[in-house]
TrEMBL record:
Coiled coil: 187-214
UniProt cross-references to PANTHER family, sorted A to Z: SLL0298 PROTEIN
Protein name (Swiss-Prot/TrEMBL): DUF2062 domain-containing protein
Keywords, ordered alphabetically: Coiled coil, Membrane, Transmembrane, Transmembrane helix
Domain DUF2062: 25-190
Pfam families xrefs: DUF2062
Length: 215
């Protein structure tokens, strides 16, 4: 009856950078879903911490998997970890990437400063080279891993090393903030459900009493 028109690639890309309804609405949806998860507050908060930490890693395209594995290891809520990867988005990735790469360079004793345009260009080139090398056995392209090796040492390794500290700090903050908030929300929700149940039970008893009093 009603056929949904498939989204164009341009629309998908546009909504990745600016979701339908805006970032505020998207963030409120994520918060709402997290609060209503059927799990103890501490497990949900562990999942949130895992998801936030995963968002700081350079494993683009694998943040969901990384978050799920970390959440499983620390016995957190896996769905909460997936939702918490929302922390990594087009608005925050530039800051996370440049901070992590340059912090990683400092930890590794490298004085090089790498800025966002080069980081983005290096990731794009590495992705292209990887797929070209994967297709090389079926084409005339010669396998060459030299640029990927340069990408690994200049961007990926510093990014990986540098993401650990801010990722842990951000994850710990996420846990510390979310745990009491979710716990309070769950207590309020249980109280409301209990009051609603008692109200319905009282109404049913009153109705039954009225029925017995009738001749």
């Amino acid at each position: 009856m009603f056929k949904r028109n498939p989204r164009s690639y341009l629309r998908i890309i546009a909504e990745f950078f600016y979701p339908r309804g805006g970032w505020y609405r998207a963030s409120q949806y994520v918060i709402h879903r997290i609060r209503r998860l059927p799990d103890p507050a501490h497990r949900i908060s562990r999942g949130i911490a895992a998801g936030i930490f995963a968002s700081f890693t350079p494993f683009f395209g694998l943040h969901f998997l990384t978050a799920a594995i970390l959440s499983w290891i620390i016995r957190g809520n896996v769905l909460a970890s997936l939702l918490a990867t929302f922390v990594g988005n087009p608005l925050t990735f530039p800051l996370i990437a440049e901070l992590s790469v340059n912090l990683g360079n400092a930890i590794l004793g490298q004085s090089t400063n790498v800025h966002l345009p080069e980081i983005a260009a290096q990731f794009a080139a590495a992705t292209s080279d990887f797929w070209m090398n994967m297709k090389a056995p079926f084409t005339d392209h010669v396998v060459d891993w030299s640029r990927l090796s340069a990408f690994f040492h200049r961007v990926f390794l510093p990014y990986l090393v540098g993401s650990i500290i801010p990722g842990i700090v951000a994850g710990a903050i996420g846990y510390a903030v979310s745990n009491p908030v979710i716990h309070a929300y769950q207590r309020r929700r249980i109280k409301k459900l209990k009051e609603r149940y008692e109200k319905r039970l009282k109404a049913a008893r009153d109705k039954a009493g009225e029925a017995r009093e009738k001749p």
